[in-house]
Model the fold of this input.
Amino acid sequence: MDVSPGTKQTAQALDFPNGLPCASDASESQWMEYVYMQKAEPTNFTGVPVTLYVLDSNNNYRSIGTTTTNELGDYSYTWTPDITGSYTVTAVFAGSNAYYGSSDSIGFYASPAATPAPTASPLSLSAIGNGIAYAAVGIIVVIIIIGVVLAMLMLRKRP
Done:
């Protein structure tokens, strides 16, 4: 963010209370005309490159990539830590023809990846069909046994 004295003027401070987003050298002229000369907001704004570095819990310092700021001065980057532990992320803007360079850091802790819960595989139609067939055979056997027992009881002579 550009927080130079010009950004503290009343009109600019009202429009950009947290500072003026930095524009790339290619967008700089149109962006300044928009901010200070009440010209139309450029539709092709390009921000500045920000390189991200990490210092991991093993004291390895390395670049993880570069991203570009947007017209709000924000940026994002997707990265998956390769080890668990504490990290410090440092964002570095090297500077341009219009802005001095700057940097900032923040820390976070990377927990181990969660173990996925096992999932039950769905039953196939043949397995379901086999289960139904076995149940039907079982029911028929039980009915036959009950019938035989009842027939024996009825045929038994009474004294």
Notes: Strands lie at 49-55, 61-68, 85-93, 102-110.
